[in-house]
Amino acid sequence: MTTATPTTAPDAGPSPPAGSVYLPVPAEITAVSKLTELENLYAIRLPEGRPLGHQPGQFVQVSVLGVGECPISVCSSPTRPETFQLCIRRVGAVTDHLHRLEAGAEIGIRGPLGHGFDVREMQGKDIFIVAGGLGLAPVRSLVQYVLDERSRFGDFHLFYGARTPAELLFREDLTRWRESNAVDFYVTVDRPDEQWRGKSGVVTRLFTELPPLDPEETMVVIVGPPIMFKFVVLEVLSRRVPQKNIYCSLERRMECGVGKCGHCQANNVYVCLEGPVFKYGQLKALREAIE
Ligand SMILES: Cc1cc2nc3c(=O)[nH]c(=O)nc-3n(C[C@H](O)[C@H](O)[C@H](O)COP(=O)(O)OP(=O)(O)OC[C@H]3O[C@@H](n4cnc5c(N)ncnc54)[C@H](O)[C@@H]3O)c2cc1C
Ligand code: FES
Questions:
Q1: Ligand showing the shortest atom-to-Cα distance for residue 274
Q2: Which is the closest atom of ligand 2 to the Cα of 272?
Q3: What is the pLDDT of residues 157-194, one digit of tens each?
Q4: Which of 29, 64, 145, 185 could lock 177 by a disulfide, CB 3.0 to 4.6 Å apart?
Q5: Cβ 35 under 6 angstroms from ligand 1
Q6: Which residue in 274, 215, 267, 214 sits closest to 248, CA to CA?
Q7: How far apart are CA 54 and CA 44, in angstroms?
């Protein structure tokens, strides 16, 4: 483990005004860029450039007037507060409409909502993140946070897997991370194409690149599809990392995002309130959500 400075986490900024949890705040899309065929990246500005005041791993409810609302993870770090970013996959009514909007358009934002990663608990520890597919979106907020506050954390390992090279998200970040000494970063694709020169195979193949961990001093974050989670957690547990050191983030269908409608319920837990980020120990009680 490298030497880290465990001090108080920087303030993520002032919280949004009371009421915005129920009432969408009008916000401006300041930039849109295409990440893949299905995903766009949006920069969003709140009125008066106010910070969102989120923690990495939290989400917002994004609304389009007359169309609807949907939960989207914040994919930028609170350490970069001028605007915040959302990576949105086009799958249905709301996200399709969002993909037709350009810079200057207005949308509604409720939040930040839910529980994110406890960055204060992570301070002074080694960090190991494994992300699969769209799971890189919530994780990118944490990656940026650790990089921006690098001296507060120990060793930093990051693995990312996508199905194909065309589905890789945040390519500019991937290049930057690969070239950086601040993070030990590896990426793989399940199905390489002819141009792909990197690693191939499922994300667990990358574990051959992982140096021995200091299990008690390592915080692990796993975000991806349930099948990936299942195999990655086995690898991590086999390295004797305690369950209390393992975080993951769950995606459930949500409506209200604030514990009122029951749409997100898994067993007896409202994922919108107690999650989407959980410790592995908590998740084992939420079989419905991970099987
Ligand atoms: C906490 C949380 C964080 C999320 N973060 C992101 C993110 O960062 N980026 C992103 O692109 N998406 C994210 N999602 C998923 C996103 O909310 C859904 O894709 C969105 O609600 C779809 O809305 P729609 O109106 O466009 O599609 P709809 O018309 O409602 O549905 C279109 C299709 O997508 C399916 N679908 C809808 N919601 C989900 C879901 N939650 N999981 C799986 N399938 C679903 C439907 O069954 C249907 O087949 C997140 C979801 C949650 C709960
Ligand atoms: S989304 Fe309504 S209770 Fe969780």
A1: 2
A2: 4
A3: 999 999 999 999 999 999 999 999 999 999 999 999 99
A4: 185
A5: no
A6: 274
A7: 13
Q: Give this prediction's pTM.
A: 0.91
Strands 106-113, 25-34: pairing kind: antiparallel
Q: Write down the mean pLDDT value for the chain.
A: 91
CA dist 26 and 144 (Å) reads 26
Token duo for residue 48: 């008066």
Q: How far is the CA of 271 from the centre of ligand 2 (A)?
A: 7
DSSP readout, 86-152? EEEE--SHHHHHHHT--TT-EEEEEEEESB---HHHHTTSEEEEEEEGGGHHHHHHHHHHHHHTGGG
Structure-token pair, residue 94:
């709301």
- pLDDT recorded at residue 63: 96
- Whole-number Å distance, alpha carbon 136 to ligand 2 midpoint, is 23
Burial 139-178 (b: 16+ CB within 10 A, else e): bbbbbbbbbebeebbbbbbbbbbbeebebbbbeebbeebe
Omega cis (within 30) before 78: no
**For residue range 99-130, what is the model confidence (pLDDT) as tens digits?**
999 999 999 999 999 999 999 999 999 999 99
- CA-nearest of 251, 253, 244 to 229 is 251
Q: Could you say which ligand is closest to the alpha carbon of residue 257?
A: 2
User: With bands split at pLDDT 50, 70 and 90, how would you rate the model's confidence at 288?
Assistant: low
Tokens of 184: 């030990």
Q: How far apart are the C-alpha atoms of 201 and 189, rounded to whole Å?
A: 6
